[in-house]
């Protein structure tokens, strides 16, 4: 007898990866340039020069030390540098002792779920959400409760209030958001914090806010993404270098427990223990050195804005309705028919690979990844025009 859930997760590949696999097969069949694959959130720009420089420098050092185990929480110099980087942006007094270096945001999220949730306790996520949240929460013995968005696809705080109860242990916030591109501002965070503080007082225990920030640097307005722990003390930042440095396959990120959290050392220890129980050992040693050298830098992410503008302007001109993405690198487009899966299938007939929104916890939309070449977007526009015509837009 094998655990049913593990079997199910192992067998039901994500619909994003299924679509990407279909795309690869289809390209082999009809030619690379004939398929418009908007499925994956894989960065499309090279890592910045600081990555190569840091790699070269690291490879010149002692190989035994370079490739050896590091402390489980990460190299002390990296933890210090991360705290300094966060304090340089926001102040707040982030402490190296409360930074835990992870194998990307996914491992950080899993450590949070395993470290914080008791059996039967609830993790709350705002729809639309990254589908792996469910696997991480249920894998940790908890339950994922989802909060439907308001009509602009933004977090609905009245719906959040209704979802919170004595079993709620944590809330996951993802801004800039995958898949909607919505970015929360200071006023939104103030309101969210007020709801959570009230619930903490009502239920008599902490409700942790997990701020999942792999797209923190990818904002297109004038202002950078705000500092979530400045609004709510019981916050844990879950960061990743996957998107900012274009290093998703290298698996590097960190958790930062707010220095303002009551019981922060216990929470940090629980996260560390959970990471240990998951067998993470330490984040890749080489990449820890790279991250340390590249803090505060990004790949040339300007192309994502170009692509967003190109897609948004052209698709809305064709009559499609889209959420205007203020950050991240996706366009969330309303399906012209209620069934997004059926729409995605019809798009496939035009060689357009668009991810139906159902796995993100909302129906009726498709996600279009803007992290593709601008040239492919230009070539895909006639196919979008045909699709629009098919729906009488
Ligand atoms: N959270 C969100 C919202 C994501 O979109 C992703 C990846 O796409 C992750 C977490 C996981 O990122 P990582 O590659 O750092 O594990």
Largest sheet: 7 strands, mixed
Structural class computed from helices and strand pairing: alpha/beta
CATH C-level class of the largest domain is Alpha Beta
Helix content: 40-55%
Integer average pLDDT = 97
Coarse shape:
globular
Which percent range describes the beta-strand content?
Answer: 5-15%
- The rounded Rg comes to 21 Å
Q: Any guess at the CATH architecture of the largest domain? A: 3-Layer(aba) Sandwich
Tally of helical segments: 14
Q: What's the total count of β strands?
A: 13
CATH fold description of the largest domain: Aspartate Aminotransferase, domain 2
Distance between the termini: 52 Å
Can you walk me through this structure?
With 393 residues, the chain is of the alpha/beta class. The protein has 2 domains: 4-48 and 300-390, Aspartate Aminotransferase, domain 1; 49-294, Type I PLP-dependent aspartate aminotransferase-like (Major domain) (Aspartate Aminotransferase, domain 2, 3-Layer(aba) Sandwich). It contains 14 helices and 13 strands. It has helices at residues 4-11, 15-30, 49-59, 63-66, 76-90, 104-116, 132-139, 157-163, 186-203, 264-277, 285-294, 302-317, 340-348, 374-390, and strands at 36-37, 99-102, 122-126, 143-147, 168-173, 208-212, 235-240, 253-257, 322-323, 330-334, 352-353, 355-356, 365-369. The chain has a 7-stranded mixed beta sheet with strand order 2-8-7-6-5-3-4, with helices on both faces. Strands 9-10-13-12 form a 4-stranded antiparallel beta sheet. The protein is globular. Residues 41, 104-106, 130, 174, 178, 212, 214, 240, 242, 248, 253 line the site of pyridoxal-5'-phosphate.
């Amino acid at each position: 007898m094998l655990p049913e859930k593990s079997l199910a997760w192992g067998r039901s590949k994500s619909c994003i990866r299924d679509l990407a696999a279909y795309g690869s097969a289809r390209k082999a069949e009809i030619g690379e340039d004939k398929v418009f694959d908007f499925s994956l959130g894989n960065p499309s720009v090279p890592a910045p020069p600081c990555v190569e420089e840091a790699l070269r420098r690291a490879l010149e050092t002692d190989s035994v030390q370079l490739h050896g185990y590091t402390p489980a929480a990460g190299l002390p110099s990296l933890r210090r540098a991360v705290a300094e980087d966060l304090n340089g942006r926001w102040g707040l007094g982030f402490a190296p002792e409360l930074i835990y270096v992870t194998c990307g945001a996914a491992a950080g999220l899993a450590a949070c779920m395993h470290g914080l949730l008791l059996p039967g306790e609830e993790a709350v996520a705002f729809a639309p959400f990254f589908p792996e949240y469910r696997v991480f929460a249920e894998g940790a013995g908890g339950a994922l409760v989802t909060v439907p968005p308001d009509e602009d696809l933004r977090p609905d705080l009245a719906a959040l209030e209704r979802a919170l109860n004595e079993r709620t242990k944590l809330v996951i916030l993802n801004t800039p958001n995958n898949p909607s591109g919505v970015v929360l501002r200071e006023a939104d965070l103030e309101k969210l914090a007020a709801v959570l503080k009230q619930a903490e007082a009502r239920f008599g225990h902490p409700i942790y806010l997990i701020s999942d920030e792999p797209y923190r640097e990818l904002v297109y307005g004038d202002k950078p993404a705000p500092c979530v722990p400045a609004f709510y003390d019981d916050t844990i930042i879950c960061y990743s270098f996957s998107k900012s440095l274009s290093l998703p396959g290298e698996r590097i990120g960190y958790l930062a427990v707010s220095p303002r959290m009551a019981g922060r050392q216990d929470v940090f220890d629980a996260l560390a223990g959970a990471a240990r129980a998951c067998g993470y050992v330490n984040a890749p040693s080489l990449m820890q050195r790279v991250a340390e050298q590249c803090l505060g830098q990004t790949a040339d992410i300007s192309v994502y804005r170009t692509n967003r503008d190109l897609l948004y302007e052209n698709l809305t001109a064709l009559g499609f309705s889209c959420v205007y993405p203020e950050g991240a690198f996706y366009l969330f487009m309303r399906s012209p028919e209620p069934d997004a899966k059926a729409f995605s299938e019809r798009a496939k007939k035009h060689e357009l690979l668009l991810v139906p929104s159902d796995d993100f916890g909302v129906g009726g939309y498709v996600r279009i990844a803007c992290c593709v070449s601008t040239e492919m977007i230009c070539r895909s526009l006639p196919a979008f025009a045909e699709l629009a015509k098919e729906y009488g837009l």
